[in-house]
Here is the input.
Amino acid sequence: MMLKEVLRGISTSWIQGKNVEVEDIVIDSRKVQYGSLFICLKGLRENGHLFIKAAAASGAAAIIVCEAQKEYPENITIVKAADTRKALSIAAANFFYRPSEAFNLIGVTGTKGKTTTTYMMETVLQQFNHKTGVIGTLGAKIGGQKLDIHYDTSTTPDPVELQRIFSAMKDEKVNDVVMEVSSQALAFEKLEGVQFNTSIFTNLTQDHLDFHKTMENYMLAKAKLFKQSRHGVVNADSEAGRYLLTHSTCDSLITFSVDRESDLKAERIEYLENGVEFRVDIDGKPEEFFIPIKGRFTVYNALGVIGAAMTMRIPVESVKKALSGMKGVPGRIQDVPNGRGAHVIVDYAHSPDSIVNIINAVREFTKGCVIILFGCGGDRDATKRPIMGKIAGELADYCIITSDNPRGEDPMKIIEAVEAGVKETSCPYIVEADRRGAIFKGVNMLEAEDTLIVAGKGHENYQIIGAETIHFDDVEVAREALEALG
Here is the structure.
């Protein structure tokens, strides 16, 4: 594609060179090949403008900058854009011929519940005989089959990978694509120029403050999605949700709730050992729903999906049937079967509010003690560590403090911060820095009718210690511990 076509819709000024053929788009100078368009981003750690000469030497056809340079390499096209992050997103969409315009795009954002909500939405759409794509924390898939396109970011792919995935989904003639939309992706303009048909807001609780710095910034990032969506489905029980309602530019809005009044308010909620039941009025008629996933948060996730289905005019009976047949999502209140008469639950809970939710959820079906095993990630928001420790100590019967993904931090320093919070309560606890050893100890403590929650990593099958990433799967280790007991 010619450069001017790639840059269509982007305000630019031509510094030097001519209109050239672009073979691909890259933001890492080490990946530049002959014919690449290199876009200079100002990152948290690196400034792409420092690598202009390296990109030119590797054969870049053109370079986009947002900072003027004293000099540029000769015989290469240089174009200046006001914001190269926005330029990257629009250029990537143009390069792949704007594939997301070929299907119904549904976004899901919020601190918690994004992954489960996308899986619920996929199930509903498939029940309605739609071919569906999913993009999120657990990867990308089409029609339930994993797509072999890797992306490094944990939730929302970077613009080039995202548009490549969209293109593959367009080629496979999907009807709908459901994707998790992270606050970082919105803050970094990764979705600039992408139009969503429907977006769902699940909730907003303390997380990612290492990046956003304040909860207000975090909320403002989430709000961006509802300025590029035709329909919004919003949790009215959330203060941030109520903020979104007043700052949205959506053509229509549907609210859902458990506590406050809303368009879709869940009533007569029954928390069962095998899931949840509730009633909600839809178009003046009471409708009964059952979802075979435990917990209050399941009600919220389901309500968001019901609202989104309404914007797509999917019949209520199809939604009911789909949700009643839901299978669990890996790492989300995932039960590890055992013959001890106890529950072992693996869950991704890694924020203060998610610790509250998972403990309260298992209380609903636990007749014995609730034991929670958890830690905190390194190089992330340190303020939540003692908060999580105190919450766990107040709500659980026993705490096992261990290591999560310490990354570049000293694991014991992280543990000490968590321990400080637990010490503010009267809850008994132990410290076991080795996560494998901690899981074995937790399983050994179990009596019949107890529940062990292994929290923090969920679906992740790795642990990051220093610069090393090792294989580690909480479910696998829990199974090993249970088998060792016989």
